[in-house]
Each structure stands twice: as C-alpha cells, then as structure tokens.
Specification:
single chain; alpha+beta; about 130 residues; globular
C-alpha cells in the first residue's frame, strides 16, 4: 500500500509544479493604437463620454479604449445611444466616426486605455484638487 501512495504522489508532483510555473499574463500596454473588430451591440459592452472631447469604449472582454474626436462632439454627453460608422472596414479604429443624434463625430485616435475616471475623481479634477491615489 505504501508503494501505491508514493507512486501516486510522484505522479501528481509534476502536475502541481507545471501549474505553478505557468507564465503570468502581462498587463496590456496603454496608449497604443487599437481597434475593435466588428463593432456591434455584442462587441461593445459600455461607453462613457468625455465632455465632447472623446469617448471611452469598453469591449466585451472588459478592456477599455479611448477615442479622441477631431473636434467637439455636440450632444455626446447627453446621448443614451451611439452609432459607429466604419465606412466598410468592419472595425472601430481611428478612421471611424461615432454617430450621435444624426451628427457624425470623426475620431483622430483610438487607443488602449484605463477605464474612465470615477465621478469623484472628475469632480476633484474640475475643482483643481488632486485625485486620491488608489
């Protein structure tokens, strides 16, 4: 019986070592040009306006991106829905435009990003205070 126990332990040892030796996924680089393939209701989970200057968009995996508008995008802060114009490319990138209440807001960049700041941090930024460190 002792032989069987030792052989099972010896057989399971490489599995536990292999599991512990798996490489840790590196965090994704922020600020690099990116795209979302086939932007639709199923590939865009969430979005948040940035005072008419840009938009944060979250994909279905939970990754955030930031798109900067070529100019001021009127009504984006009050919109409940947006559209994406890709001009046949089937991807949301810096060459796309966001459609808000019939107005076209072209993007000049679309980069990987951290999520949008919290409302508290945005209020402190407006008041000129430094946001709290997390």
């Amino acid at each position: 019986m002792k032989t069987l126990t030792l052989s099972l332990a010896a057989a399971l040892l490489p599995l536990s070592i292999a599991g512990a030796a798996e490489p840790v996924a590196e965090p994704r680089a922020l600020g690099t040009e990116a795209s979302i393939i086939f932007p639709s209701d199923s590939s865009i989970r969430n979005w948040r306006a940035d005072d008419g200057r840009g938009i944060w968009i979250q994909d279905r995996r939970g990754d955030w991106y930031y798109g900067r508008f070529a100019g001021y995008c009127r009504d984006i802060d009050f919109a409940s829905a947006i559209g994406v114009e890709t001009r046949g490319a089937s991807r949301l990138d810096r060459f796309a435009a966001i459609i808000v209440r019939g107005d076209r807001c072209p993007l000049t960049s679309f980069v990987t990003s951290a999520g949008p700041p919290s409302k508290r941090d945005r209020a402190k930024d407006i008041m000129g205070e430094k946001p709290a460190a997390n």
